[in-house]
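Let's sit down with a protein and look at its sequence and fold side by side. We need material for that, and I hope you will provide a protein of your own picking. Once you have written the record down, we can walk along the chain together.

***
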Amino acid sequence: MLRLAFPLLLLTLLAGCANHIIDPRGYDETGMATFYGAQHQGKPTASGERFDQHSLTAAHRQLPFGTRVLVTNLANGRKVAVRINDRGPHTRGRLIDLSHEAAEQLGMIGSGSARVRVQSLSD
């Protein structure tokens, strides 16, 4: 019995650490955004499509692929609508990773990061 208990406990702990897809309706969070660009150009995203740094896309840990969100740079008020097509950010304390084009439209290329508000959009 003890031999079975340890693997079950381990499995339970690992399942609790896994990312869970969430319902995007009403999603409204504030946090840090970063961007990724040329080094990932053409590589497959978690959704299976190829990354295009010139498109308006983003990576999010939990929102379903295809979800459209409005990202607002809280420092300058600039906004951009992006589509979630990848998983990330993979750095603690970050909410969303944006394509280079999205980051450019938000005016955050120079700083590399920005405090943003992310809100789901209904299609």
Q: What stands out?
A: The domain at 26-120 is CATH 2.40.40.10 (Barwin-like endoglucanases).
